[in-house]
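pinging the channel bc i need a second pair of eyes. not urgent but kinda urgent?? the chain im working w is below, pasted from the shared doc
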Amino acid sequence: MAAPTASIAEPIVHPTLRDRVNRVPYLPGLDGMRALAVVAVMVYHANHAWLGGGFIGVEVFFVISGYLITLLLLSEKERDGRVSLRHFWLRRARRLLPALFVMLAGLAIYLAFFRQRPMGSLRGDFLGGIFYGSNWYQIVVGQGYGAQGVFAPLRHLWSLAVEEQFYLLWPLVMVVVLRRKADRLPRVGLWLAGIAVFIALVSAALFAGGTVNSECSASMHGYWSIGGRCINVNETLYLSTFTRAGGLMLGAAFAMVWRPIAVMRGPMRRRGRRVDLLALAGLAGLVLLARGLWLTHDSPDTAFASVYDPWLFRGGFLLVGVCSLLLIAAATHRRSWMGRLLGMRPLRWIGMRSYGLYLFHWPVYEVLRGERLHLDGTTFALAMLITIPVTELSYRLVELPVRQGRLGEWLKGQRPARTEKARARRRRNIMIGGTIAVISGFAAVSVATAQVLCVTQIECDAEAAAAAEAAAATSTLPPTTLPATTVPSTVDANVSPDDTAVREETTTTVDPLAGLPVYAIGESVMLGAAPQLIAGGMQVDAAVSRQGKGVAEVVERLRAAGLIGRTIVIQTGTNGSVSDETFARIMAQLPPDQTPLVVFLTVKAPRGWIADNNTRIRNLPNVYPNVLVVDWEAEAVKVADGLSSSDGGIHLATSAAKQFYANLIFAAIGRPDLMK
């Protein structure tokens, strides 16, 4: 997402400006391009189904930024004979930081007063946003752009981090280029275009196709191991500054050969119609790419796994960049009707506020989204009713005053109030500003000192299960495995020691497995009801993304340790296909003479392998007489309202649904007294 740079119009302060071919006039068509790009991104963020490739709007912003920033540096060199790094970075800060800090402060205030639980886990996101390192932070912690179901109101700052890093480094490169190659800019542009192609080739070579599991422990395909951390390859290609610099380089390369003033002084000034035809091709290409490309979707074969679009990473970004250049050519050509079309007032209005719209829309979406993955039409309309006024207020009251220096003059007292009414307004503004500053400070301290707590349902379930298990372990002695033995029956206390009657000795056999707890082994669905199962005296070993082979390994470990008692409960098959061989492997550890009752639960999920898995599970009693099947797929209909809506009703979302699930198990193992 680009900061608004096209509106930097160089003021005409001297007639000799007419001789400067590198000067940057105001180009309304570029604001129109920004408008289309930010709208595409906002629609995509609301609901991927509406515009599956809308995220390419960010790449369009990258190309525009590379083009304009390079033009501005060329103009400054021509005007002043040098590039002032300090002034350049100061201008960037005045444009970018005010709105960013307003957004961060507003979010912190919302969290501190209305949603305290995520504050601790978002501390790193705040720091990444403040220091423009969000993209690298998200790569390291595994908060990929394609991740879903997590409250992440600052995830969109990754693109601003990429651009700000470009703003820091590119002026240094341009200083060297303008000292040594100022007379060979077209050749430099050719080199920059070559770098963009090279980046595209590297991304294509590194791209991990096929299914990529959400946890690298499940499969190292699609992951790098760096410093003991698992780094998702495709998310890194999407987020990293190096692999996303291609659009920036294309824009910079185009600035070396297509400077608006120079173009209108050369033979290209009469080629407006040809430029329009190319722009139409570019616009059509962007529309097709926005409709045809996609970033990631759930794997049809494996749960908790994703598939990434190979066309996107194998040339898709480069195509977006080329199409963007064709539109930029028209937007900067004075005789192009496409440029005039893009410069229409409504598009200009949106484009001039595109930075604020991008900053504020995503946190608003995240607040309104709740547990849903996407917004519906009504919620999207509500989000716009919030985002647009907030953006306008930020633009009018913060961004423009800071950009134009009015706020600094006012704070320094250089703009004194001349009337009593103006002085009263100034006192009121000081009070309002002071109050906001105090509240923002309180919110910042709250975020900085907040405890890291679970946020997602699965995290909270796992945390509750661990706490309940720890409490159970401290309140009861650990189970022990005892060999079968005989003990004398209880002696009547009334029998005298002197009684000479012969007492018949009776013996009682102690079942070595009777004292062992009931184990429940399963996946994240079972993990959701772990607190209820543990409260009923069961031991729970459930994990997110666990496959059938993982369940078999747990059963084998428990059998080897002698911890399996007379009853065991198993649920597997949600996360992938489970073969007859895997079920046989599980049952080999649970023979009828040692484990009389094995309870299997069927599985429920909108996945292609579920039907086959349930057929195998329902057939188990025909092969293994000690198996009892609980049909969770059928029973789950009774608590459909209590299942998670964000994943198609796979997980348990409410306490009632969790207790219902646990009650099914309690009834199956013959402990109806535990049901609530």
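so The chain is about 55% helix and 5% strand. and Confidence is low (pLDDT under 50) at residues 5-15, 475-495, 500-508. — does that match what u expected or am i reading it wrong
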